[in-house]
Design goal:
APOBEC/CMP_deaminase_Zn-bd; hydrolase; 4 helices; 5 strands; about 140 residues
Length: about 140
């Protein structure tokens, strides 16, 4: 499948404009591409209690699953923020991506300044905690 980074970053930028970030005022958008070519937007949604806040990447992933997409069937994700340098996912989002996305899935990280870079899920979280650990027999 051809991955159009420019289209994903444009969709992520549009989602960023819908972010609810009254406390940090740091809006982030994401666009998740599944194996069937469907795109799921996501934006950060803050909460005054902070802990319930949800990042754009997780909003896109959870929304895709809620819409019927299957875990590990995603082709790419892009994220963008109002930053000069490409924006990287937080640690929590990296852990969620390890569980829900293929390890070699591209992660396209963009900036408001038009710069972007690409990595993979596995490269962003080396030596990750994997769900398989929970299936191992305990001593």
């Amino acid at each position: 499948m051809r991955i159009d980074a420019d289209m994903l970053l444009k969709t992520a930028a549009e989602a960023k404009d819908r972010a609810y970030a009254p406390y940090s005022r740091f809006k982030v958008g994401a666009a998740l591409l599944d194996a069937q070519g469907r795109v799921y937007p996501g934006c950060n949604v803050e909460n005054a209690a902070y802990a319930p806040t949800n990042c754009a990447e997780r909003t896109a992933l959870f929304g895709a699953i809620a819409s019927g997409a299957s875990p590990k069937q995603f082709a790419a994700i892009a994220l963008i923020g109002d930053t000069q340098e490409p924006l990287s996912p937080c640690g929590v989002c990296r852990q969620v991506m390890i569980e829900l996305c293929p390890p070699d899935m591209p992660v396209i990280m963009g900036s408001a300044g038009g710069r972007w870079t690409k990595s993979t899920v596995a490269e962003l979280l080396p030596d990750a905690f994997h769900p398989d650990v929970l299936k191992e027999e305990q001593p």
